[in-house]
Amino acid sequence: MKQRINLYQAGLKPKQETMALASLFGLVMLVLTISLLAWGGMQWQQRQQIQINKLAEQQLQRQQEQLGLLQQALLQRQPAKALVVERDQLQRRVEQQIALQQYLTAQQVQADYAYSVVLQQLVDADISSVWLTHFKLRPGSSELQGLTLAPATVPGWLESLRHFNYFKGQRFNELRLTQLPEQQAVQFHLIAEQGD
């Protein structure tokens, strides 16, 4: 068994690979060409991106200018005169209707109160021989219609009505009595107006 190795033998020496100057120069030129092409491509791509950004900025600026012009136009724009007149008329009409509704509501409340008072007074003046079938109450006048079996009691009933507030100052200036055919009842019709 061999325990020594002779490293100085030609077969054990590492082979040195050498490159010719022309090959080295070609390799350097290839690397340089690839680097220049890559750099040129990046520059071209950067210029393209800059142009795209400039176009986008110009478009954005134009749109902002248009938006500003539209906002100014909206601020300066006045509605059509016909629409303003129509709006004012509708507003006045609505206000008039609200006022009319409030007035009618107030009148209804007053009328309800007045009728309830008058009806209470008619109940207080009620006698068994007189029946009211119809009545109209207007400011300053009254009209009463009814039936009675005893016509002589009608004037006394009228006299009792004069003492109530609603009928004060009213004069019963017309009284018509009509005998109903084939009946005992007599129909009466009274008209009263505000007296002097």
What does this structure look like?
By secondary structure, this protein is of the alpha+beta class. The protein folds into 3 domains: 30-77; 80-124; 127-194, Gyrase A, domain 2, CATH 3.30.1360. Helix content is 55%, strand content 18%. The protein has 3 helices and 4 strands, in the order ααββαββ. The protein has helices spanning 21-76, 81-124, 154-161; strands spanning 130-138, 141-148, 170-179, 186-194. A 4-stranded antiparallel β-sheet has the order 1-2-4-3, covered by helices on one side. A hairpin with a 6-residue loop joins strand 3 and strand 4 (186-194). The radius of gyration is 59 Å and the shape is rod-shaped. The relative contact order is 0.06.
Q: Summed up, what is this model?
A:
By secondary structure, this protein is an alpha+beta fold. The protein is 55% helix and 18% strand. The mean pLDDT is 81.
Average pLDDT over all residues:
81
**What's the main sheet like?**
4 strands, antiparallel
Count all strands and give the number.
4
How widely separated are the two ends? 167 Å
CATH architecture of the largest domain: 2-Layer Sandwich
Task: Estimate what percentage of residues fall within beta strands.
Answer: 15-25%
Q: In DSSP terms, counting alpha (H) and pi (I) runs of 4 or more, how many helices?
A: 3
- Strand numbers in spatial order across the main sheet: 1-2-4-3
Give the number of domains: 3
Unreliable stretches (pLDDT < 50, length at least 5) are none
